Amino acid sequence: MELRRLGKTGLSVAPIVFGGNVFGWTADEKTSFDILDAFFDAGFNTIDTADVYSAWVPGNKGGDSEEIIGKWLKQNKVARDKAVIITKVGSEMGPGKKGLKEQYILEAVEASLKRLQTDYIDLYLSHWPDAETPYEETLGAFAKLKQQGKIRAIGCSNLDATQLQSSFDAAEKAGLPRYDVIQPEYNLYDRAPFEGPLADLCVKEDIGVITYFSLAAGFLSGKYRSKADTEGKARGGKAAGYLDDKGLKILAALDTVAAETGAKPAEIALAWLLRKKGVTAPIASATSLSQLDSLMKSATLSLSDEAMALLDKAGG
């Protein structure tokens, strides 16, 4: 598996990052273990999660995904230094437990380390912007954790170009480490959050880019073609939002490329991301081994310039 350099972090990641939001939600512990075993056996090496995953599920408390990953790591089927673990801080974990203030970050990282059953986190991200906390305070907390060896690299999620530049300016002024990775929402349908100023800034500053909602809540897999297809599905409500003229044009373009290549729509949607300027690797999830097999094929799927142009036009 050819690994991709993740900005200036010193980390290298396989072309697909596994989205651990499904662990403890639509994938139980055994299924999660089987998927992770197969993912790493195939040469992939990176798992993305967050402390809040999957608190939205009735009966869950948050930290559920990290706990499953921790139990899997503890089996030692994969050496710890061969797995790149990404997690995030800042989403609400209970009353008063959210945001990016120093004291909260220093507490939250200990909880994540305990759930993950590891001594360090490879990449620690601020999950959302926190208007109440200056970048200097957040970056100062991350700097302490790096010095203590509890995290190896830092990044952010959901910042726009102006916010990201402001964080760089604050880091430089205060002599603190900067964010070296960003996780933006980016897929064939939702292109505006990343394309343009943010993508240009990431290329200019050599920022690693790991995209989330890479398959638009499963819509780009092609399995949701009508409102009826979304009913009763875990992600159906989100996927239903893509069923408009633009979404149907994208599905038609994916179908055309699928007919030409023999690849599935989800594989094509991920391969499209892998060719986009500035993107290091997309995050994608699977809840079965057959889904996983399809996702992994996207890492070696080469789309023609004609196919890229067709897809670009459909989602433009």
Please outline the helices and strands.
Layout: E1 4-5, E2 12-13, E3 17-19, H1 29-41, E4 46-48, H2 64-74, E5 84-89, H3 102-116, E6 121-126, H4 135-147, E7 151-157, H5 161-174, E8 181-183, H6 197-205, E9 208-211, H7 227-230, H8 236-240, H9 245-261, H10 265-274, E10 281-284, H11 289-297, H12 305-315
Helix pairs in contact: 2-3, 3-4, 5-6, 9-12
Please explain how this structure is put together:
The chain is α/β, with parallel strands linked by helices. Helix content is 41%, strand content 13%. It has twelve helices and ten strands. The chain has helices at 29-41, 64-74, 102-116, 135-147, 161-174, 197-205, 227-230, 236-240, 245-261, 265-274, 289-297, 305-315; strands spanning 4-5, 12-13, 17-19, 46-48, 84-89, 121-126, 151-157, 181-183, 208-211, 281-284. The strands form two sheets. An eight-stranded parallel barrel has the order 3-4-5-6-7-8-9-10, surrounded by four helices. Helix 4 (135-147) links the parallel strand 6 and strand 7. Helix 9 (245-261) runs antiparallel to helix 12 (305-315).
Order of helices and strands: EEEHEHEHEHEHEHEHHHHEHH
Helix content: 40-55%
Computed over alpha carbons, the radius of gyration is: 19 Å
Strand content: 5-15%
Number of E strands: 10
Contiguous runs where pLDDT drops below 50 for at least 5 residues: none
